[in-house]
Design a protein that fits this description.
Layout (H helix, E strand, L loop, with lengths): L6 H62 L4 H10 L9 H26 L3 H19 L1 H13 L5
Helix pairs in contact: 1-2, 1-4, 1-5, 2-3, 3-4
């Protein structure tokens, strides 16, 4: 320092020097909080990327039944294979729901086969009625799937 500086400049310099360490600590804390928030958001986005294919697979399965009013072994098998390991990413309600979709698809297929094989009108009509009931159930499932999967796919900043 220059010997000609007044004491007030020295005091200001000492005060600024003393405030430098806490200012750096506060800045470090702010950066730490921001990194934490960004890592949480990245984690949510990564989970979304892993969960979304299960939702998409369920919707495609439902859509297939509704559009074609039919289902074959290949579609059922593809759905079952695409919904493996869902229990690692979702709660029990999704596991139950995906299993129900799978079982309803099988029942739908069984009723179609029964209706095609049966010759007696009463039995055939019963099989067609059951098939239509399951088809109606499937037609309501896009909304149900959106509700169930929604809580796992929504990205909120809490």
């Amino acid at each position: 320092m220059c010997p000609h500086q007044p004491d007030s400049y020295k005091q200001i310099l000492e005060i600024l020097s003393a405030l430098l360490t806490p200012a750096i600590a506060v800045l470090g804390a702010i950066i730490l909080i921001l990194q934490y928030c960004l890592s949480r958001l990245k984690w949510k986005l990564d989970l979304y990327d892993k969960r979304y294919p299960y939702y998409r697979s369920a919707l495609e399965y439902i859509e297939y039944v509704c559009v074609y009013d039919d289902i074959d072994d290949k579609v059922i098998s593809e759905f079952k294979n695409s919904s493996k390991y869902h229990d690692l990413l979702f709660g029990d309600e999704i596991t139950t729901y995906l299993d129900l979709l799978y079982k309803q698809g099988i029942q739908f297929q069984i009723q179609i086969k029964r209706a095609n094989k049966l010759t007696k009108n009463v039995e055939r009509n019963n099989a067609i009625t059951k098939k239509e009931e399951i088809g109606d159930w499937f037609s309501k499932q896009p909304k149900e799937a959106r509700i169930l999967f929604g809580k796992y796919l929504r990205i909120k900043n809490k």
